[in-house]
Structure formats: structure tokens, C-alpha cells
Amino acid sequence: MNHQSVAYWRSALALWRRLALAQLRQQPLRLWLSLLTVAIGVALCTTVWLISSSALLEFSRAGSRLAGDAELSIRGSAAGFAETLYAELARDPAVQIASPMLELDVALADRPGSLHVLGLDLLRAAPLLPSLLPSLLMAPTGQSPLEMLTGDGIRLSAAAARRLQLQAGDELPVLVGEQRVLLAVLGVLPEDAEAASLGIMDIASAQWRLQRLGVLNRIDLRLNADVDAQRFGAQLQSRLPAGVVAVTPETANTRVASATRAYRVNLNLLALVSLLTGSLLLLAAQSLSLLQRRSSLALLRALGMTRRELQWALAGEGAVLGLLGSLIGVLLGQLASAALLAWIDAEFAAAGSIGAQLAQRMLSPHPLIWAGFVLLGTASATLGAWLPAREAARRAPALALKAGDAAVGTEGRHFPVLGAMLLIVGAALAWLPAVAGLPLFGYLSIALLLFGGLLLSPAICGWLLAHAPRSGVAVFDIGLAQLRGSRRQIALNLAAVIVSFSLMIAMAIMVYSFRGSFELWLQQSLPADLQLRTNGNDPRGNDPRGNDTRTLSVNEQRQLAQLPGVARADFIRNTRLLLRAEREPVTLSARDATPERSATALPVLHSVAPPAGAQPVWISEAMQTIYGTQAGDIIELPVGGRTRWFVAGVFRDYGLGGGAIVMPREAYIAASGDHGADQAGLWLTSGADVDAVIAAARTLTWSRGMELLATPELRAGLLRGFDRVFAITYLMEAAAVLIGLAGVALAGAAATAARRGEFGMLRHLGLLRRQILAMLAGEGLLMGAVGMLYGLLLGCGLSLVLVYVVNRQSFNWSIDLAMPWWQLGALCAALLVAATVANLLSARAALGVGALRAVREDW
Amino acid sequence: MRSWLLCALSCAAMLWASTEPRAAETVYPQVTPGLALQFPRDHGSHPDFRLEWWYLTGWLQTADGQPLGFQVTFFRLRPTLASGNPSAFAPTQLLIAHAAISDPARGRLWSDQRIARAALNLAGAAEGDTNVWLDRWRLTREPSQYHARIEASDFALALTLETTQPMLLNGERGYSRKGPQPQSASYYYSLPQLRVAGSVTRDGRATTVSGLAWLDHEWSSEYLEPRAAGWDWVGLNLDDGSALMAFRIRDRDGRNFWAGGTWRDAAGRTEVLRPEAVQFMPGRRWRSLRTGIEYPVEWTLQAGSQRFELQPLLDDQESDSRATTGAVYWEGAVIANRDGRRLGRGYLELTGYGSPLRLP
Questions:
Q1: Where in chain A are the domains?
Q2: How far is CA A851 from the centre of its chain?
Q3: Range 80-119 of A in CB contact (< 8 A) with B
Q4: Which residue of A has its CA nearest to B83?
Q5: A143 and B19 in contact by Cβ < 8 A?
Q6: Which 3 state secondary structure label does DSSP give A859?
Q7: With an 8 Å Cβ cutoff, are B16 and A126 in contact?
């Protein structure tokens, strides 16, 4: 580069600095708000991403530690299979190492919940658990590997010891069948050995103490080098008993990940929407700012800066803003996620969650994730600056140098036809099925609807403004005329509001519909007056299968049914069935009360009358979607060997994502011989007092530690849980709308500043300052109304996709659409008020300059 | 006689007892003098005793004339556990197996080890005659021969061992003392001069082999006294058909604590060696780069009227069995010379030379 051009660049940069800085000095608020919009967008993304990915991390880590280095794992349900299968597999020439295991959720005595217990033969498991082994062997007491076999007792992970407040030498009382069993705590594993809350027992001790003699439910295999795990597994499958599957570790991990994937993807997409809102806002702010700086930019062009150079310089400005904002945003996001996780932990401390560790881990740096979001934020901000910069650079400098060019700049190209096409394609995509269990086309549909909506917004806004009724009040009509004249800029200013508001409307409708359906479902699925679970308050939430070891014996069932005040007792036995290796287990719920007997027993969506002699079962919607089973089909279930059942209907279920099957309990007992029950619904005689019945039940000594709740109380608790889950999404949507409104205020301020000449003229014509403010407030109201109406329209469309596509395909359940009129009304009113107030406030600030000066400036 | 293992296992067994407060103490039978061993019954397992092993060592020659040493050992341990657990997995008997090949072409051992509880017949030791197995590792006896089959991670052995001589009852007709206390003793017999034929597979390449081996079978309940720290043992198959077993137990200062042995000459006359008749005199030393432990790998051995100079087949015959018993030791093929002339070959075991045996 020669001296001349160096000098040229140096002077150009100096000039730029002066002009840009002068502008910033004039309007520092604009700078800060631009920064803040990017920062909040990026912060939301970072927070949500960190939280959801850390949860996944925990899941897969816990999974992989216990899965160890096995190439193939034989899994059965809690009922398990005969241990002779292990001996058979160990002798198979293809098998190098076979490790027998018994994996159960053991009911705790004297306290709620259960403990995940892994019974294993350490001598066999050692080569397969290289990461777990050292900590088992190098236990603080310096025990020998042989000693690790030592009979009776349990070793607790650090998390479990903390949760149960136990240490080596203590005893852990657990419930097995009707009995209370004391397990000696032989030791506590070091913190880094195992993050999950669990206990490890010797296989012999586990079989004996947990009353599963002769039974295993998991065998981990390492195969000889020349054996293909996938093929061997498939071949083995045919030799396995009913309900036992051979899974590769990849499948097992996918299963864990897919269980939470839908929820995570939903959250992450919401976070990205906030980022989109942020960059749209930057687009609006930047284009306004460039409009204002038209004369200084024209000066630069006149001084010899080429169009391309100017465009790059403006985009660079956006990039710097984006970079700064993203850095702040990432920092905020990191702090917010740590705080949120700490809150989650405090909330669930009793359930023994791992949030504290998570929060701690959150504070540790995630350079890659940070870099990713800084890049994303900067890129979107640069893009947001690029489009208006292109337009600003195109303008002929001579024209732009003249005063009064502001209005000219706002009339550019727009694409209503493309917008309409996008809307049509978006709507069409909503009909496509899920991809790999995710509603990808649903999301694409939402994106296209939003984008098409945005492209159409100048036209729609123009139409809405054109059809706005004249009020007859001069100041309002002047305002209306002003808005009509700059509909494209209005649409641009409103873009962020439209995106965030329509999404908020869509979410509100979806959550309201969901909540309504959920509440109805709770009423239908918990019909009795009083609910008993052998072990409630399980950290896994509403999984009815609280544990694998404690069941109500026939005698106990009789005692419950005979309590004074109890008219009828409906018992339920929940077990889990492994139907397919790559899927979560299906919950089999054997109930006394089935749709056959009482119409209100299940929220059945549609049913088929079973042929004579067929054994009926009912399946949940998730089961229908995942396994493709339909009402009227015959299915084979591993209940007492392989037995055949007739699917008499499909019911709605919000509790079990993996699918559920309901069958009459007497049929279950006949097939399996299992008389136990782990849940009961008690119907009271008329006039009986719920509390008195609970007190009577509590006199049965065996009911200690069991969850016994009046049904309304239980329902309320479950609804609270529901609201908590959606609190996060509400929070994020509110943040997005706030960002959008900040944008409206900014745009208002900028437009007001640009129209100082007009106001000066109006003052000269005799309008009072108060009247001008009223006019501006009216403009704000009108703009808000346009954004609201359009957002509402778009939001209702989006809500249909959320309710019927995204929700259905993510979670495999249906919900009934319901409109939250009150909520929508309140949201609309809030938006109108906020838009009016924002415009008014920014107008007041802009009108601080005297009228005389304003007119002089213009001439 | 394998002090490292004994020590490790019996201590582990005692620890076992100490962490199992509610289990009734297992009562083990005592080893007493004057009991006549009965065969084939005593070839089989004695499950009531705390410890028992079948220990095969020997020299092999491959088809192309390469010398190899080999060792195959099965241990049975009865833990101090009497909880009455009816589970098939209840660890009432444990099986441990080691196998190694001393290969001069490789410069160090091929070795592998296994440990399992006797459950569901996947591992066990039968009574009545020798039949001990752990997954696919097995040692069985027929009237005049043994079969050993080992499928290790990177090598395999399939050997048939023919008896050529009557068995050698060590100590007082099989009652072998290990210290001044009369109860620290074992029942112990050896089978020297076993003629070996079979195959050895290394890294998937099999060769036929032949050679001479030595079998020890020993069982006891209370073996070592606490003062004992290490052990030197040798079993020699001499070329003229005679055989020598000699051992020396060292205390924590490296001094002789106890010693013993049995000599049988070519004509079959047997001499039991008293403690003062056996002297192990260390010669050249070798330091392991893996563990830093220094072992005397050459020895002069005085056993009664017999004197031998022992030289190793290769220096690095160190075994690391920390994964199963926690011990690191040297066990390898040696040549027995006298005045520079080869008289025979055998196996030498050196234990307790590292830090005092680190108990697992």
C-alpha cells in the first residue's frame, strides 16, 4: 500500500471517528440499547444452551459410567430373568467376558423415594468398568479387591451418601416386599467416581437381601475381537426370554438422550428465537440510525469514499456493536445459568438432585460454547447492519446531502409475493411427519411462517393503516397520515415486536391448551378420593413406578380396603416392559378399574369393542406413535412369557413419554402370578372425612413412608410442577417482547428526532406542545395496534402449528386447542400501553429542543 | 508353595472376616502330622481348607528347538465368610488362575490371570480327583496324565503331562512345616519329571512343544507366621531322573526364618531336608525397569549334600499380579549347573523383594 492511500485511509478513518462518535455522543441511549438487545439475545441463548446441554451431559455420563466398556448389554425389566441365562452366555464361544448384574430402584424405608442400586460381581465387572473400578478398589479404607466382594452391605456414591445423610458404618433401611431390610453401609465412593446418586452391592448380597434369588436383570458382555456386536446381538435376541433385549451401548445412550431431546430442542429453539428478535431489532435500529446520519454519510461519499468502502465500514460498525453485545451476553448467560441451576437445586434438594454440582460446573469456563455464541451474536448483528448499510451506500450523495431526504429513504423494495409464498409453503410443511422423533418440519414451518409474515408486514401494515378509521381529531389524523407515509419503516420498526409478540401469543395459546388438557387428564386419571403410592416423591416426577422392591401384599391390600370410611379400593400394579432395545421401557399398568368396568376410568380417545374371548388392553398415544400399534390390533407382551392381547382403545397420557399400557389386573395376575400392587385409589363412603381416613391408614404400621394424599392435593402438586416447567418459557418470551418494545421506543425516539422540523412547523401553525405529544402518543398507539393485530393473527397461526404439530410430534401426545381469551386480551392491552408510553417518552425527550431551533435546522 | 500369594490371600481372607461382623466365623480344619494322604481322593479339592493350589511349572522346547518356560497355577480360596447367603453367587469359594510363558525371543513373559467366584459352575474345583477350572482355563487329571488348557488374552497352552515317576510326598509323608509353630504347615506333594507334549500359541501362531514339568499340589488353613516376609522356592528336574524341591522363608530383615526340602536321587531314595540343611546364597542381581524391584536372579543352592548354581533362562521373568492378588514377584525357568556343567532344569520363585508385599 503506497503512502498516498495510507494517508487517505488515515484521514477517512479520522473523519469517520468524528462523525460516528459525534452521533453516539448525541444519542448514547441508542448505543446502549443496541448493545443490550444483542446482549440479551445472546444471554438467553447461552443460558438455555448451557442448562440443557449440562443436563444431557449428566445423563450420558451417568449412563456411560455404568455401561462401562461393554459391547453388548442384555437388559430385562425389574422382574428380571433366570440367572442360568448368564451361565449360558458366559459359556458362549463368542463371549469373552460376561458380567451379571441386578439393577433395581430400591424403596427406602422411613424416608420418601428410592435408591438406584446396582448389584454386580466385581470380579466379572472389573474389566468392563475401568472408570468406576479404581474408586471402588481404592476406597478410603484401603480395602482389597477381594474384600469388595464382602457379603452383605452397600457402597454409596458420594451423592447418595449426601442425600441419605449416611456414612460408612451406618445402616440403610430399605423396603422389600412387605419386609424392612437393613443394609450395612460398607463405604462411600469418592466424589469423582460416580456423579449419580446410587448404591453398589455385591451380586450375591443383592440377590439375597433384595429377595431376587436366582434372578438377574442385566448382563454386560465383552465379545471376542472377531465378533460383530450388532450382528451377535440380533442373533442373540431370538434366544432371549420375553421382555429381555440385547442393546449396544450406542443404543442405550441414544435412549437416554432421546428421552429428553424433545424438551431440549424446544428450549434451544426458543433461545434462538430471542437471538433472532435481537438481530431484527438491530436491523431496525441500524437502518433508522443510518437514515438519520444520511447527510454525514453523504459527506463521506462526496469526500471520495466509494460505495463499497462505506458499506463495509457500516457493516463493521454493526460487527463491533455485535461483538461487544455478545461478550456481555455470554457473561450474563453464564451467570444466569449458574443462578438458575442453583435455584433448581434448592428447589429439588430434598429429592437428591445434582444441581449443586451442575451449578458448580456451570461456573467453570466453556470456551467453545462461549466462542460459538459470540460468533453467532456478532454474525447476526453484522447481518442486521449489512442490509441497511447496503441501502444507505446506494443512495446518491448529492440527493442525500439535501435536507428533507429522510422520507425518501424509507421507500425501498419489498417482497409481498415472496412473503405470501413463504406463508403457503410454511403452512404446507406443517403436514409433514416427524423426523427421527423431532418435529423438524414443524419448526421449519414456524420459521417460514414468521419470515413470510415479516416480508408481508409492510403490505399488511399499509393495508391496516389505510383502513384505520379517521377519528376526526386533527392531531390523530395528522399522525395517521404520517404513519401511512412511512409504512415500510414502521414495518421494520415493528418487525421485532411482531416476531416476539406473535410467538408469545402462540406460546400462550399452546400452554393454555396444554394446561387445560393436562388438568382434565389429571381428573380423569386420578378419579378416586385418596391416592396411595408405595413410594412417592420420586425425583423422576410423575413416573408412577416409584420403585422395584416395595409392593403391597394381598393382606395389606385387604387391610386398606377394609379401613373405616373406605367404600372401594382400586389397586394398580405398575411394571416396566422392554419391548424394543432402542426404546425406553413401556409402563404396564395393571388396574382394577378399567374402561370395561367404568367409563371414567381412563381418558380414552377412541375404542374398539374386543371380540369374544379376547383379553383387552388399552394403549397410550405415545405407545401408538412409537410402536405403530392401533386400536383393534393384537399385540404380544412379555407378561408371563409371551402372551397375546387385544388393543381395545387408545387413551391420552401425559405422564409417560415412553408409552403406557393398561390392562385389567386380574388378567395380569392370571398371566404373571404377581399379586402385588404399588398404587391404590381409595373411594370414600359418602360423608367420610378424608383426613380421618388418612389418619386411620397411618395406623397401619406398614404404611410408614408411603405417599398418602387427598386427590385434590395431589393434582394441585402436579399442576404446580407443570407451571414450573413452563415458567422458563414464559420468562424467555417476556424477555423477547421486552426487547421488541425497547426497539419500538428506540424507533419512536429516532423518528421523533428526525421529524423535529415537522414539529417546529406544527408549533408555528399554532399547535401546543401538549397536542404534539398527544399526536405522538396516538401514533404510538396506532403502531402498537397494527403490530398487535398482525402479531395476533400470525400468533394464532403459529399456535396451531405448536399445538397440532410440534407438541404432538415432540411428545407423542395430543392436546385440545383452547383460547385463553383473558390472557390474550391482557397481553394485547399491555402491548398497546407499552407502545404508547414508549413513543411518548421518547418523544418527550426528543421535543426538548426549542421549536424555533427546529425550524431553523430545517431551512 | 507360594508365600506371596499365601500371604496376600490369607490376609485378604482375614480382612474379609473383619469387615463382616455379622457373619459367623468359619472354622477351618487344621493341618496335622501323621495323616496318611489317600489317592486319588487327595488329588482333588479340599474345599474346607482355607487355601489350596495346583502349580505346574516346566521347560518346553518348540518344534524349531527354541526353549520356553511355562507356568500354570490354579488357586482355590475359601473366604472367612459364613453368612448363610443362599445365592448361587455367594462367594463361598474363589478361584484364581495365573499362566505365563518365559520366552527368550520376547525378552519378557507372556502372562495372564483370572479370578472368579465358584458360581453356576463357571469356575470350580472338584473333589475326588484333580479337576479345577475357571471359565475356559482348566486342569484335569486322568490315571497317569494331566491335561492343562489355557486360553489367555494373547497366548494359549494345550498340554498333556505324563507321569513318569511316583509322587514325592514332601515333609513328613506330606505334612510340610512352614515355621516353628506346628500348626503353620500344609499338606504338600509334588510330581516331578512330568513328560509334556502339546502346543503353545503366541499371538495366534501355534507351535507343537515337548518338555519336562513339575506339579505341586498343596493345601492348608494356616500357613505363614506373621514374621515371614518373603519366600524363595525351587523345583529341579535333573537330567539323570533325580529331583529336588527346596524352599526358604525370610523374615522381615531378610534372614532365614524357616527352610526345608526334599531330595530324591536317580535310584528313588528320598531324603527330607531339615531347615539347617538348606541354604540359598544370592549371586547376580537384576533390577526391573517396570517396578524398580531388584531380584537376585542367580543363586548358589546347598541342599543336603547337593550343591547347584542356578542361572535364569532370561532375566526378566517378573510377574505383576496386582489385579488379582496384589503381588509382584519373580518366577522363572532356571538352569541348574554344578561347576559349569548342566545337571538339570527347573523353576525358581522369588517373592517379597519389593516393598513389603502390598496387600490389595
A1: 72-247, 452-529+706-859, 535-702
A2: 53
A3: 83-84, 86-87, 90-91, 100
A4: A151
A5: yes
A6: coil
A7: no
Spatial separation of the C-alpha atoms in residues A7 and A5, rounded to whole Å? 5
Average pLDDT, chain A: 77
Q: Out of B19, B117, B122, whose CB is closest to A90?
A: B122
What's the pLDDT score for residue A289?
67
Question: What pTM did the predictor assign?
Answer: 0.72
Q: Report the range of poorest mean pLDDT among A81-90, A541-550, A733-742, B266-275.
A: A541-550
A602 contacts A662 by C-beta, under 8 angstroms: yes
What does the pLDDT look like over A758-788, one tens digit per residue? 777 777 887 787 888 888 888 888 888 888 8
Q: How far off is chain A from B95, nearest CA to CA, in Å?
A: 11
The answer to whether A185 faces chain B, any CB pair under 8 Å, is no
Is B60 within 8 Å of B210 (Cβ atoms)? Answer: yes
Average pLDDT for A633-637: 91
Taking one residue from A and the other from B, the number of pairs with CB-CB distance under 8 angstroms is 94
List domains and CATH numbers for chain B.
3-20+39-80+89-351 (2.40.370.10)
| The amino acid at A510 | M
Tell me what ipTM this predicted complex has.
Answer: 0.87
Report which residue type is found at B128: G
A792-839 pLDDT tens trace: 999 999 889 888 888 788 777 888 899 999 989 988 998 888 888 877
Beta bridge partners of A99: A220
Q: Between A90, A121, A143, which is nearest B89 by CB?
A: A121
CB-neighbour burial class of residue A451 (10 A; exposed 0-12, middle 13-18, buried 19+): middle
User: Which of B16, B87, B121 is nearest residue A207 as measured by Cβ atoms?
Assistant: B87
Q: Is B167 on the interface with A (CB under 8 A)?
A: no
Establish if A121 touches chain B: CB-CB under 8 angstroms: yes
Q: Tell me if residue A436 falls in helix, strand or coil.
A: coil
Residue A425 identity (one-letter amino acid) = V
Q: In chain B, count H helices and then E strands.
A: 1, 25
Is A858 in CB contact (< 8 Å) with chain B?
no
Rounded to whole angstroms, the Cα distance separating A129 from A139 reads: 15
Question: Hey, are the CB atoms on A144 and B22 less than 8 Å from each other?
Answer: no
Look-up of cell digits 409481498: A416
